Q: What sequence folds into this?
């Protein structure tokens, strides 16, 4: 069952799940936002309640700060974050809960990223911002890195 206010992208990556997990988590800055944007990792505390903070920088000086917490982390399987809280469980205006999942599929890795929103309006706004293209490009960038390293 999917959430009524959910957006998602999926991609089959021709690389083993352990490699994809390592790149997805340890090397997040390399794939997190669509090029030519870049990601500055402030902190990634990979445990439930841990801080997830980064800044996305655009080619024309744009700056988009992301501040939230991890809700769940299962190494090799998934991580879930939300911006409904800052570190220390401090409530803030929520936009979404993000879920990134990996599953083994015949020696390859099924990558699925989901964004669940509190309202239909927030979902529609995220769609209008270019969710499918942007998150799809991130999946493509993750796949490029993992597939290159899997064959190296």
A:
């Amino acid at each position: 069952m999917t959430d009524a206010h959910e957006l998602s992208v999926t991609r089959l990556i021709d690389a083993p799940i352990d490699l994809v997990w390592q790149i997805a988590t340890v090397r997040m800055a390399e794939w997190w936002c669509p090029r030519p944007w870049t990601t500055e990792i402030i902190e990634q505390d990979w445990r439930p309640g841990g801080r997830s903070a980064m800044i996305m920088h655009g080619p024309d000086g744009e700056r988009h700060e992301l501040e939230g917490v991890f809700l769940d982390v299962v190494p090799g399987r998934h991580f879930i974050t939300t911006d409904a809280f800052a570190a220390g469980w401090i409530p803030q205006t929520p936009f979404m809960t993000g879920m990134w999942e990996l599953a083994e599929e015949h020696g390859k890795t099924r990558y699925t990223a989901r964004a669940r929103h509190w309202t239909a309006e927030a979902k529609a706004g995220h769609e209008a911002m270019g969710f499918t293209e942007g998150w799809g490009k991130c999946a493509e960038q993750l796949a490029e890195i993992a597939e290159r390293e899997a064959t190296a």
